Hints:
Layout lengths: L9 H24 L10 H4 E4 L2 E4 L1 H31 L4 H15 L3 H18 L3 H6 L3 H10 L6 H28 L3 H9 L4 H31 L11 H12 L2 H33 L1
Antiparallel strand pairs: 1-2
Helix pairs in contact: 3-4, 3-8, 3-10, 3-11, 4-8, 5-8, 8-10, 9-10, 10-12, 11-12
Amino acid sequence: MQQKRYKPVLLDYILLALIGGSILYFCWQLENELQYEWSWETIPQFILRNKNGSWEPNFLLEGLFTTIRLSIWATLLASVVGVVMGLARVSQSHFARMLSRTYVEIVRNMPPIVLIFISYFFLSAQLTHYLALDSVVQDLPPWLHSVISVLFSKPSQFTQFVTGVITLGLYEGAYITEIVRGGVNSVQRGQWEASASLGFNRFDQLRLVVLPQALKVIVPPLAGQFISTIKDSAILSVISIQELTFQGLELMASTYLVFEIWITITMMYLVLTLGCSLLSRWVEHTLEWKN
């Protein structure tokens, strides 16, 4: 069915005028009341730098790349944890259901910064003490250092990066668990009964009948969860992971260009999340079309 084209109403114009007026008032206050001196010409050097005639990412762009890497790896880990725990939530085993529900309730009812500090001090100590991860990475050949730098982070920051991925993955996994549980529960009970009457065991019922139908419900929220992971990754700046927010805080402390840096960071996050939002909408429309 063709969607009707949206026509703006009077309220839309009023809201637009209010937003524009607020922005102008904010700029006027900075200019006249706070006597703030803008210095936008210094921002590009924090995004790209010219080294020996070639352009390289500088602090802000490196931070953006680290944010993207963190979000991708954390989402992959969260998807694995979420699928396993989500299937445990609809399992016939009482122990599995209780274990999964305990995980979800603990994570969802705990402030994320508390979880991050607990995970950081515990996980980082374990990775350093028992696995000697820092020594292992430092002893690798130079070409593997390059691979690690591209896929993860600088070798000197590898332990912090892995800790951040695990922490963020466990946090987001609780929400994906509920997405998976909701998707499986959206499949009509008759589908379970029909597949059981054909002689399928529980695993085959899930694999061949229920999950293919549940995926159409699960995939769109998963794309939205990836956007949430990008935004939540900013909190990892408190454990000194050099993602975008951390780099911005460091630059702000050294240059005092508060508004220029935060506005630039905001625009970078917006470009990233709006791009993912458009991708999420395309996936949703594709699944609707296949229905």
